[in-house]
Amino acid sequence: MEFTSFLWLTFGVFVTLCTMSFLYKDNPFYKFAEHLVVGVSAGYFVIILWHQGLVPKLFERLEDGDWYYGFLNSSHWEYIIPAILGCLMWARFSKNYSWLSRWPMALYIGISAGLAIPLEMSNKVNKQLHAMMVEIDWANFFGHDGFNLLDVTSGFSQLLIMVGTISAIVYFFFSKEHTGVFGRVATFGIWILMIGFGASFGFTVMARISLFINRLQDTFDWGGVAFDSTNQHYSGMFPGVFWAFTLFVIGYVVYEIVTYLKQRSATTQ
Amino acid sequence: MRRQIPFGLVFIFGIFMVFQFFVPHEKSEWVYEFLLDWIIVIGIFALALGIWSLFKVSVEKIKQGKEGGNYSYITLVGLYMMVAFGFTQQTGEGWGLYFLWIMLCSACIVSLMRLRASTDSGKKRMWALASVGFLVAAVLVAIFDDAWAFFLYTPEGLENSMFEIFFDHIMMPILATMFSLLAFYIASAAYRAFRARNVLASLLLLAALLVMSRFNPVIPGAEYVANASNWLMNVPNLAAQRAIVIGIGLGIVGTALKIILGIERGYMGRG
Amino acid sequence: MELFERLMKLDRRWVFLLLIIVCVWAYASSFSVPILVMPEVQSIYDKVEGLPEGSVVLVAIDYDPNNLAELHPMTYALVEQCWRKKIKTIFTALSMNGPGMCVQAIRDITDSVSRDKEYNGVMYKGREVVNGVDYCFLGYKPYYAIVILGMGQAFNQPYPTDYYGTPLDEVPMMRGIINYDQVDLVVDISGGNITDAWISYGQGRFGFDLALGLTGVMTAQYYPYLGSGQVIGIMGGLLGAAQYEKLTDNPGRAKDGMRVQLPAHLVIILFIIMGNVGFFANKLRLRREGRA
Q: In this structure, are residues C271 and B191 in contact, taking their beta carbons and an 8 Å threshold?
């Protein structure tokens, strides 16, 4: 790795720590990172929209036309219509003409709604209902290899999936009061739902920790590069930058601790 | 007129899409393909709206001298730099005066913002002169430096090393770290709010503990816990999530129908 | 009792600090965690492993840097497996920052594939992976559901050019590949709602084999699709990625990170237990005081 790349890597660690500092309190370093990423992300998206969107989907299609004819002499003149509709979206910024932005929106909403009806019904409802309607494996009700309730393909599991799904759907049915047998089924449904939410929470914990682990990995990797003497571009500058940066971070932490202690003693007095 | 035409459009295109799905025909397929393509073009303009909003808010913050307005300079310079990188690429080995050009343009933007923010006429003149000066210098550098060039209609800029560096060493670490903060908040929430107050909360807690312990080889009966967790995911969790999926599916279909038939009109806003 | 009350009122920053210390300690220590492969991950591996040379896999990189920790390792393991087996890949990126993630993944995996390596006892010679021949990166287009439907008609309908501006008809790899009919497997590696669109608008409409790589937060929600056979497998979170790395014998960041998960989870379980002990102790005290 070249020294310039290492400096950028160091900057990556710097902005990581700037962002992490929010855990202690909101501070200028965090604000710097926050505002920087907002701007850079927006700039990135401008470029992606331009090079991946406008140029291939519109400009290249109209390029054989002439601007003074309004590109109407282009072989793909029909793309002027979505372009005009797209421009109408910008009418939202006008007080008097904001209603014009409803036209392209209506087109999008109409198409999306029309697409959603058959596809969502088929894939989210019908196929799930179909999957639920399986023949219960009574022969292996308590498991395939003897008594094993943890067998996911046993008749017991199949029955539990079916009963659990129906009960949970019953819980969501609010047009009838949850009393009597109906209420008991709904109660079982909420139990099943709670187990589902618990499972989701368990996975969420793993997900969140994973994100922090990634930041640790990047930071440790940066430390590794700083002292990697097998790097063909390695020089004393690498550890120099490492130590300078580390001292800066330690210095800031000490400064914060001293400020905190001073404030505390002032409050006590 | 202001509301009727959009409702009409929603109805016509909605019904057409449903009809096209069940009764596909060569001609309707042709219209269908066109519509899919058109929507993407409209989408590009719609998404650009968000970026313009961000730009406007940042400029307003600076102009009004709001608290934290100075940070908006960072946002605007970051936005400009990324756009500049995306439209330029080096033509030879070195970068020439490229970075000077970037700095001059950044300085020009900052001067323009200072010009908008200042109320004193003397300062206004100073910033106007500075912005013109930086702009002229930037244009001269762009004209006479041939180490790099502008690429507006070809995506060379996407392979500009600075464009990639900004993504890899600014966007990636900051966005990844922002989300990694959630690890700490979930730990804090686990400590403060995750209580076995009643049967339902206890069920949730037990399921979560079981799933969290599934790859833990140090607890007794680790293999049993892993199997139990696998069963929990594939049986009760599946049942719960299936009910939710069916509910969501029916909800989407119901809402889509209401939109097409003009019963649900909230998306149109007022006016 | 006072101890519990004080613990309950503990500044949350101490909780943060403890978690940081545990994670840093775990990452700096050298121990490994056994990875148990689940059937839902195994099925994806088996599917890819069963594909002959020259097959086509579409990898949808539908995530942003926010989720790279969990999803990048999946991409690395899966794409490297494909390229080592000379399976061609089409990449799409339907999330806003997806193109950047994809570019980075292609760059790193290309570098890795250029070196000789042994996987599961089979030696693979290093080779140069060529854009347009071994892979085609289609890039980003807005409105993912519409793009997914459009690709079902023809890839060049939503994507007239690839990410690098080459017209799709001129990309050698895409000759003869018109739509999903010529794709053997679609793998959606996603950190958001795009997965729903791949299931409903992609697999549901065109019937291709779909595998999912998901963040931990989403994983539990997609098990119904596994049960109904709409998806062939699910890699869930860092654990799913680590399982895939184990199967492909290509340990990377996921396997490396799993050893931090273990103590971090223990700490959080400890927090939950402490919180509950404090809660019940407080309840007991209030009950006793009420009686007195």
A: yes
Q: Which SS3 state, helix, strand or coil, does residue C136 take?
A: strand
**C207-229 residue pLDDT tens:** 999 999 999 999 999 999 998 99
Judging contacts by C-beta atoms under 8 Å, the chain B residues touching residue A58 are 41, 44
Report how far residue A183's alpha carbon sits from residue A176's, in angstroms, rounded to the nearest whole number. 9
Pairwise CB contact (< 8 Å): B21 & A169? no
Nearest by CB to residue B259, choosing from A98, A113, A206, is: A113
Torsion angle of C-alpha atoms C80, C84, C88, C93, degrees rounded to 10? 10
Residue B163, pLDDT > 60, answer yes
The closest CB to that of A111, out of B39, B155, B229, belongs to B39
Q: Per-domain residue ranges for chain C? A: 2-28+260-291, 39-251
Q: Which residue of B has its CA nearest to C11?
A: B188
Tokens of A136: 């219960």
Distance from CA of A185 to the nearest CA of B (A): 14
The DSSP annotation for A49-62 comes to: IIIIIIIIIIIHHH
Q: Say if residue A23 is exposed, middle or buried (CB neighbours under 10 Å; 0-12, 13-18, 19+).
A: middle
Query: Chain C: residue nearest B193 by CA?
Result: C275
Query: What was the pLDDT predicted at C281?
Result: 85
B58-to-A142, A267, B32, B70, B105 alpha-carbon distances in Å? 64, 38, 40, 9, 18
Could you tell me where the beta strands, DSSP code E, fall in chain A?
Answer: none
Q: Poorest-confidence range of A8-22, B205-219, C101-115? A: B205-219
For residues B47 and C95, the answer to whether their CB atoms sit within 8 Å is no
Q: Are B205 and B194 in contact (CB under 8 A)?
A: yes
Q: Which two tokens stand for residue C62?
A: 């539908």
Range with the lowest mean pLDDT among A6-20, B217-231, C147-161?
B217-231
- Angle at the Cα of C162 from the Cα atoms of C159 and C168, rounded to 5 degrees: 70
Question: C144 is written with which tokens?
Answer: 């993912």
One-character DSSP codes across chain B: -TTHHHHHHHHHHHHHHHHHHHS--HHHHHHHHHHHHHHHHHHHHHHHHHHHHHHHHHHHHHHTT-TTTTHHHHHHHHHHHHHHHHHEEESSSS-TTHHHHHHHHHHHHHHHHHHHH--SHHHHHHHHHHHHHHHHHHHHHHHH--SEEE-SSSGGGGG-HHHHHHIIIIIHHHHHHHHHHHHHHHHHHHHHT----SHHHHHHHHHHHHHHTTT-TTSTTHHHHHHHHHHHHHTHHHHHHHHHHHHHHHHHHHHHHHHHTTS--GGG---
HSE-CB at B252 with a 13 A cutoff on CA atoms is 23
* pTM of the complete model: 0.92
Report which DSSP code applies to C204.
H
Kindly report the CATH number that applies to the domain delimited by C39-251: 3.40.50.10160
Identify all chain C residues contacting B180, using CB atoms and an 8 Å cutoff: 69
Chain C residues closer than 8 Å to B236 by CB = none
Chain B contacts of A201, Cβ < 8 Å? 204, 207-208, 211
As a whole number of angstroms, the distance between CA C223 and CA B256 comes to 25
Q: How many CB atoms lie within 10 A of CB B23?
A: 8
3-state secondary structure (DSSP) of residue A235:
coil
- Predicted confidence (pLDDT) per residue in C263-278, tens digit: 899 899 988 888 888 8
Task: For residue C60, name the pLDDT band (cuts at 50, 70, 90).
Answer: very high
